[in-house]
Amino acid sequence: MIHIAFDHSYARDLPGAWQAAQPDMPPAPALLFWNAELADELGLDTAQASAAELARLFSGASLPPGAQPIAQAYAGHQFGGLSPSLGDGRALLLGEVIDRHGQRRDIALKGSGRTAFSRRGDGKAVVGPMLRELILGEAMQALGIPTTRALAVVATGEAVQRERQLPGAVLTRVAASHLRVGTFQYFAIHGESETLKKLADYTIARHYPELANQDHRYLSLLSAVAERQAELIARWMHAGFIHGVMNTDNMALSGETIDFGPCAFMDAHHPDTVFSSIDHTGRYAYGNQPAIAQWNLARFAETLLPLIAPDDPGSAVPAATEIIEGFANRYQTHWLDQARRKFGLLDAKASDKQLLQDWLALLAAYGVDHTLAWRYLADEAEGKPDRLAALFPSASVLEPWLKQWQNRHVPRTRRPPDIAAAMRRENPLYIPRNHLVEEALTAASEHGDMGPTLTLLEALSQPFNEREGLERYALPAAPEVAEGYRTFCGT
Ligand code: AMP
Ligand code: MG
């Protein structure tokens, strides 16, 4: 029997913010994926555990000793409309562990059955979407983007009713925490000011301990969360990542990417790109993500007003507003800093913003593959124009911009191969291409074949390293395949 040194600080410190619940008994748990590297990072002594044992432990069949499953309460603005009571309708926090780096991490099941927050849902999850969460999470991790990760995916052996019957699965999620903007909204809406204050202090202690003794710590919390979101969203934008459901319950206060539902990476660059089948108005389109993050932060700020100024919450509005309005600048700073590294630049110039905007406008105008355009720009640093030029209808449409980018590298302080190598460390070759993700999910879900998922994970584990034999993992789908690609919510 494996031993996990669980702690339960959330349950202990925040009574009233959760409901105890038990997972359902899966009829025939079978391990689809085990993240040995993450298990090691968490310090779990699972090296000796059999696949069958891991499948039982991480599906709810027999919980690891010390687990105290709870469903967390939260609210959330979903597509702009407020749902005052959401909460974990199909997830259970088993507890927290301290990882090898001394960081507290949540271990939670997703798809383990109904809870007090399930409303009309069945509390279940199915193989396809859980493998999507696994693949996208591992890709983000390898790209250096803060993210929750999957420790395990277990097929339950149960048929789950969706638009048709699909194989059920439970994913074990590891997160810096599951504290969300929606967690604060829940207690603000229900007028539970005591719990709200405890929640804010808990969030500070867990994610922003440097603020703990500040006089204006709740205002500082807003500022610190805004800063992490600014950096995170800038990374999403450069990676071409579209979250798909940036509801306030899906924005983590830790600054990790969380709740991979209908998320996807875009191929052809365009600000209006939307994949989610439920995002009819394009609220969460690629180009809207920074503005939506700011909107979500404004909802977070509203919950903090009574903590910032308990006697007169209204008096806190100007200071909070200043932070929310300042998000645009914070975002732009990260976006430009990250772009300079992608461009192979070591210093900053005011003209860089125009250079970046012009580049992205070119990609959008000609529907150029976002990932390959950045990647092949590195070739240009070595004087090899062919691969980049081939992405455009003709080399001449790119030429004026390329001249500017080349001039920006004068005077050159590094050798061309060094610039190219540095750029290749910033611009990935392998991202989870939609058609490859779909192929992997279909093989696993329809044919019980995990092969394509494992090969894809292998390619994505070193996104910056071009490797022989992985050519098809670098290429976008044919336009007729990419056209009309839709992702569906992870229910
Ligand atoms: P999501 O869109 O996955 O972030 O989920 C939004 C809300 O719906 C959360 O409160 C979930 O717990 C809940 N939910 C999603 N799917 C289910 C399901 N199959 N059964 C019960 N609740 C669900
Ligand atoms: Mg969610």
TrEMBL record:
The keyword Metal-binding applies. The active site is at residue 249. ATP binds at residues 87, 89-90, 110, 122-123, 173, 180, 259. It catalyses: L-tyrosyl-[protein] + UTP = O-(5'-uridylyl)-L-tyrosyl-[protein] + diphosphate; L-seryl-[protein] + UTP = O-(5'-uridylyl)-L-seryl-[protein] + diphosphate; L-tyrosyl-[protein] + ATP = O-(5'-adenylyl)-L-tyrosyl-[protein] + diphosphate; L-threonyl-[protein] + ATP = 3-O-(5'-adenylyl)-L-threonyl-[protein] + diphosphate. Mg(2+) binds at residues 250, 259. The keyword Membrane does not apply. Its cofactor is Mg(2+); Mn(2+). Keywords: ATP-binding, Magnesium, Manganese, Metal-binding, Nucleotide-binding, Nucleotidyltransferase, Transferase. Its EC number is 2.7.7.-, 2.7.7.108. Nucleotidyltransferase involved in the post-translational modification of proteins. It can catalyze the addition of adenosine monophosphate (AMP) or uridine monophosphate (UMP) to a protein, resulting in modifications known as AMPylation and UMPylation. HAMAP family: SelO (MF_00692). PANTHER family: PROTEIN ADENYLYLTRANSFERASE SELO, MITOCHONDRIAL. This is Protein nucleotidyltransferase YdiU. It comes from Chromobacterium sinusclupearum. The lineage of its organism: Bacteria, Pseudomonadati, Pseudomonadota, Betaproteobacteria, Neisseriales. The gene is ydiU.
